[in-house]
Amino acid sequence: MVLAVGAVACGPEDSGAKSAGSGASGTPQKGGTLSVLNNEAQTDFDPARLYTSGGGNVPSLVFRTLTTRKRASGAEGTKVVPDLATDTGRPNADATVWTYTLKDGLKYEDGSPITTADIKYGIERSFAAELSGGAPYLRDWLVGGAKYEGPYKDGGKGLDSIETPDAKTIVFHLNKPEGEFPFLATQTQFAPVPKAKDDGTKYEEHPVSSGPYKVVKNENDGEHLVLERNPNWSGANDPERKAYPDTIDVRSGLDQAVINQRLSASQGPDAAAVTTDTNLGPAELAKVSSDKQLAARVGTGHFGYTNYIAFNPNVKPFDNPKVRQAIAYAVDRTSAVNAVGGSSLAEPATTFLPNQKAFGYTPYDPFPAGASGNADKAKELLKEAGYADGLTVTLTHSNAKGGPKGPEVATALQDALKKAGITVKLQGLEGNDYNDTVASTKKEPGFFLRGWGADWPSGGPFLAPIFDGRQIVQDGANFNTGFLNDPSVNSEIDEINKLTDLAAAAPRWGALDKKIGEQAVVVPLFHPVYKRLVGKDVKNVVISDWTGVLDISQVAVK
């Protein structure tokens, strides 16, 4: 989910395009400096603390992992491929044991060899409280992971569930079958860390590189990062990263409007610049679209993310399924899409899973409301629920203007539901207050706006956190906001997780999405579309459907 906020889309309109804009023609060459202009700083530059998968972003230039994503545009980029390992992993019969072998000739920036002991140690240190923040799956999946506190407290014992019989072999023992373990192995927690170079929370200042670039400057906790070539990296054992520029200069803390202005003007160093976190807004997009040269430099990307209405069935009247169904029929998705900038920036959604094959997307609409809602059907259901004269409810939303959970979307829903006899009062909350309220089982409202993005392109990390009853968290951040605890849903999640054939698993995730959707514990609204500018001299723009982020490892500036 964190990734959904920070690593959104950037790429060419034609997902197979090899360049962006008229100034970026020609064969990509090595050399030059790529500038990255960002709003948010690249904080916590430690592989244990980062929450990012698949590669294509700044950390993947420094940290290699056991697996990564295929660096290709569109759906082809949703495939997991080997990185440090020779393959994507060898499971036992029930996918509870996974074995990997390292490639030959792997080296750190200082020329020392990368070993499986380093990968084991890198994973173990991610369990330390002071290095928390990364993906939580290992604590749940690894045998003994739930109670492990990291290498600084284990007296050198380590995690028995990670075995390294030799310098090139590593074996993982899991609590349960996990056919998607190769996806998890793309997370930065699987990056090697040499124990002798680990200095705890200070490691982020100069992490030891296993990728094509090393950190030579890290100012103000990631506000200014400078990366230069790692002389001991070899493209011969890393076919995914092209590593064209000599230097990557990342500057953050910039106003988003300023970023887009600089990319638009493309003066001086900004001609060879990109952004990994700033989209074009509706007004900016309208301006850019009227200029053919600028429009040629606008990339379109899709990250698997869904914005939706969430219900708390423990709060009346949302305990009545017919009330939830009535709201589903009353929703005007066209007005919701328009509230976030129109069809160029969002696509209407009737499924919880994003409309990409990798997720197992299966088209369905259990409560067909059409493009602008079905008020008559909604009124019919309200009458059956005992609310023939209508009802009044409160919708909780974020106060962040222009956002997918903000007042504009809330007002659009308010207007649509009014046609069905539902009076909606709006309750806006500020950022942290909003997040804390909707994620608390004790404070969760009955009717609110929510969003979810997957950690990798599969139905598993999309459906399980939101609908698996065993993942309801009573005393922490809870994402199963509908408190769904259906044994048949839980069981099917377990059965699909046993599959190592991900192509076979995908349609089963789609069928499960349909089954859950019929219970109306959420109402999908829209999937975001991202639009971004690149500098006029940027070449070889690649954007995949994994993260929707421009892949820095492919970009050239000469």
TrEMBL record:
Skewed-composition ranges (Basic and acidic residues): 195-207
Coiled coil regions in record: none
Region (Disordered): 13-34, 194-216
Record's compositionally biased regions (Low complexity): 17-26
Stretches assigned to the Solute-binding protein family domain: 79-470
Protein name listed in UniProt: ABC transporter substrate-binding protein
Organism: Streptomyces xanthochromogenes
